[in-house]
Backbone:
């Protein structure tokens, strides 16, 4: 079964490749840095940078660019991060805990992810009840993702979701679902169902209108359903994304995927309407020729079925 959005990290999946650039990247910035995207108060959040998704159907491979921003950049500087009022824990961390946290953050911000993992692991094992433990678990997951250790990252993000009032809980759910998705693509097929369940939990806790990452949860929930052969459920998730997220960076991909899935289900009138929507909204897309051909095919099939 082939999916709709790609993943270059799985060489065995010729029609599902995913090329990631700077995923979950953390940056080191000073308190007066004015370049923080969507983060005037420099809140600690992670960012998913740019991705290239080749979308392939029936042997056709088409590259499509999309930028997915989970949140603004994660800024950690031992000289100021603990001084922010909104980030200051209610309970005080010990100097020993702060020292380990600072070392881990510095390693992470400088791209030394293996060293950062070691320090974050030390922190969560040594100071499990420290007020900074949720952040440490989350950043441990981030670093493991950078190292493509999706199993280890999933464990860390699962621990992070145990803190419902933590500011990065929504991101933790999305990252956990993504890691389960990647592991399922890598051969652990049973984890597609877990990924769907995790993303469903995210959407229940952070529904449309409340959460900031609901469109991404719906997209990968749809993808996971599609890869399991549950195309009707995939159509439902893609449709919800298309209807409720007019400005999503994933919208064009979702419309394309929705049309293809509807076509594969034999719902040619619905597929034709979806392809019309794609052509209207994305007239300059590299997919426009393929989509126009698909639209013509759905019209033909509708006539044959009449």
Residues:
């Amino acid at each position: 079964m082939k999916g709709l959005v790609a993943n270059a990290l799985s060489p065995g999946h010729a029609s599902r490749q995913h090329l990631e650039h700077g995923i979950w990247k953390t940056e080191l910035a000073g308190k007066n840095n004015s370049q923080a995207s969507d983060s005037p108060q420099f809140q600690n959040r992670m960012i998913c940078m740019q991705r290239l998704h080749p979308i392939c159907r029936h042997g056709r491979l088409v590259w499509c660019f999309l930028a997915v921003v989970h949140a603004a950049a994660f800024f950690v500087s031992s000289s100021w991060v603990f001084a922010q009022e909104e980030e200051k824990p209610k309970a005080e961390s010990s100097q020993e805990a702060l020292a380990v946290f600072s070392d881990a953050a510095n390693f992470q911000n400088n791209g030394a992810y293996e060293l950062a993992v070691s320090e974050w692991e030390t922190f969560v094992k040594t100071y499990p009840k420290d007020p900074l433990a949720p952040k440490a678990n989350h950043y441990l997951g981030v670093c493991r993702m950078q190292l493509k250790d999706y199993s280890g990252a999933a464990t860390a993000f699962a621990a992070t979701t145990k803190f419902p009032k933590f500011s990065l809980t929504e991101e933790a759910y999305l990252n956990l679902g993504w890691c389960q998705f990647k592991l399922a693509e890598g051969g652990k097929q049973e984890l597609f169902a877990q990924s769907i369940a995790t993303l469903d939990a995210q959407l229940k806790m952070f529904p449309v209108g409340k959460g900031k990452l609901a469109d991404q949860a719906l997209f990968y929930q749809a993808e996971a359903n599609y890869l399991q052969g549950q195309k009707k459920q995939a159509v439902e998730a893609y449709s919800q994304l298309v209807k409720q997220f007019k400005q999503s960076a994933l919208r064009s991909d979702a419309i394309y995927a929705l049309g293809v899935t509807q076509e594969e289900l034999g719902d040619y009138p619905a597929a034709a309407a979806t392809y019309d929507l794609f052509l209207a909204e994305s007239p300059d897309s590299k997919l426009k020729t393929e989509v126009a051909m698909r639209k013509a095919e759905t019209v033909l099939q509708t006539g044959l079925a009449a």
Observations:
- Strands lie at 19-20, 26-27, 50-57, 60-67, 74-75.
- The chain is about 50% helix and 5% strand.
